């Protein structure tokens, strides 16, 4: 390639100065970048307005692209449906036969449960759904695991609300714009969810590992055995997530810290349900009256 | 990009639009993150960075020396990285390429590719250090991402060369 040098700027003072100022600006911009980085590390929601303003423009576009993608994906599914109808039918009959006794037992248990709850006069807080929306895009080029939801403040979505799919917990809303919201997925390295083992209520936390899985750590016991297939659900501790939402299943036997796979696969999700925070945040404290001077 | 094969009667773009075109291609590269994919690992190559490096190496006067910072700012807003990481890393790459260019004046395409590879690896590794805790097991995915980005450089070079020829400012 031919040399391209602009060092020799001739006798034009204007050209010399503009070249020099260009380089000064470049260095200054790098310094500004470092300052921005420190600011966003100290106070992450500082630039949420800018980000979500831009997301408000891109989310509808992603939403349309998502519809196109789903339309394209429906074609092979349609053919598969025809081709494998018989095999699927047989499998479903088998499953139904196996599930019928279980269903009867579950009905009996549910009835028993309702009766006992009524006896205890337990007040159940059920999470009120806010909106059903779609995850339309994600931070696919970054190591962070964020997804963009195509519903925002206009639909009542607020930061801190849990997001779940039919299979389990997806994450929680961290930033909202007018028509888009940013969801911190379970698998992000910053995500920590208090969970308990469904079988015996063992307390643990599910921390994201940034590679599509979560790490289950026991909280207040040591030498805890986690077995393959242990199911963990949310506890409601911290007041964010409604108790009992499935979170993850352990994939290998381990002690104290186990690798687990989340139930909800955000990419396979048709719709995500945004729910009210389990215990709403207390209102900000009223300014206390100044103490009377002695 | 010799003048011999260009159509001498073709109308060149107006100067303002011709100057805006490189900026727009880099922004378009950053906008690739709006594709409707919910990734579980960093899998999408950083197309904004790729376009920026290609413009810098193939047509160095297409973008101002300070262009990396505002373009990086926009990329940060779109990519989910902590704001300022691309501003800093892209600017550092720009300065490093300037320093390399003072020593290697006559380069061929392989050397450009090598410089771009170094810059891509630096930016991805830097972005990982700035965004994630040290122990996060994403290095394998990151290497795949870097490899695919490096392999995309020749394609980006063809695209940039084509746009640069069309826009008519040599």
TrEMBL record, chain A:
Organism: Sphingomonas aurea
Residue ranges annotated for the Rod shape-determining protein MreC beta-barrel core domain, each copy included: 136-274
Presence of the UniProt keyword Transmembrane in the record: yes
Keyword Cell wall biogenesis/degradation tagged: no
Keyword terms, alphabetized: Cell shape, Membrane, Transmembrane, Transmembrane helix
Entry's family note: Belongs to the MreC family.
Domain of life: Bacteria
Protein name, per record: Cell shape-determining protein MreC
Residue spans crossing the bilayer: 20-42
The gene coding this protein: mreC
């Amino acid at each position: 390639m031919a040399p391209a040098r602009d060092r020799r700027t001739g006798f034009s003072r204007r050209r010399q100065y503009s070249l020099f100022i260009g380089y000064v600006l470049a260095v200054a911009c790098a310094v500004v970048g470092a300052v921005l980085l420190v600011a966003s590390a100290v106070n992450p929601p500082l630039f949420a307005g800018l980000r979500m303003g831009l997301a408000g423009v891109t989310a509808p576009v992603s939403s349309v692209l998502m519809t196109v993608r789903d339309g394209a994906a429906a074609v092979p599914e349609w053919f598969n449906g025809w081709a494998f109808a018989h095999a699927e039918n047989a499998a479903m009959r088998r499953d139904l036969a196996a599930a019928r006794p279980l269903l009867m037992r579950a009905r009996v248990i549910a009835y028993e449960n309702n009766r006992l709850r009524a006896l205890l006069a337990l007040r159940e807080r059920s999470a009120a759904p806010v909106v059903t929306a779609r995850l339309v895009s994600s931070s696919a080029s970054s190591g962070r695991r964020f997804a963009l939801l195509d519903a925002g403040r206009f639909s009542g979505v607020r930061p801190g609300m849990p997001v779940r799919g039919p299979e389990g917990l997806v994450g929680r809303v961290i930033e909202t714009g007018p028509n888009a919201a940013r969801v911190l997925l379970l698998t992000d390295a910053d995500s920590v969810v208090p969970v308990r083992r469904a079988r015996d209520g063992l307390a643990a936390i599910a921390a994201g590992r940034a590679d599509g899985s979560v790490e289950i750590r026991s909280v207040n016991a040591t030498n805890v055995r986690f077995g393959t297939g242990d199911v963990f659900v949310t506890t409601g501790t911290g007041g964010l997530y409604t108790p009992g939402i499935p979170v993850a299943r352990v994939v290998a036997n381990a002690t104290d810290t186990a690798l687990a796979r989340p139930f909800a696969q955000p990419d396979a999700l048709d719709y995500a349900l945004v729910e009210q925070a389990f215990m709403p945040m207390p209102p900000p404290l009223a300014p206390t009256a100044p103490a009377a001077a002695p | 990009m010799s003048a011999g094969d260009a159509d001498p009667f073709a109308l060149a773009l107006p100067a303002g639009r011709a100057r805006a075109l490189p900026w727009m291609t880099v922004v378009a590269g950053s906008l690739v993150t709006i594709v409707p994919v919910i990734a579980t690992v960093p899998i999408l190559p950083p197309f904004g960075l790729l376009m920026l490096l290609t413009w810098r190496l193939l047509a160095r006067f297409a973008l101002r020396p300070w262009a990396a910072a505002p373009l990086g700012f926009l990329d940060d807003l779109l990519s989910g990285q902590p704001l300022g990481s691309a501003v800093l890393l892209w600017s550092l790459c720009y300065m490093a390429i300037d320093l390399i260019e003072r020593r290697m004046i006559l380069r061929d395409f392989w050397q450009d590719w090598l410089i771009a590879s170094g810059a891509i690896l630096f930016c991805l590794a830097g972005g990982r250090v700035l965004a994630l805790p040290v122990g996060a097991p994403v290095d394998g995915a990151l290497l795949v991402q870097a490899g695919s980005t490096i392999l995309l450089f020749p394609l980006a070079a063809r695209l940039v060369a084509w746009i640069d020829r069309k826009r008519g400012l040599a």
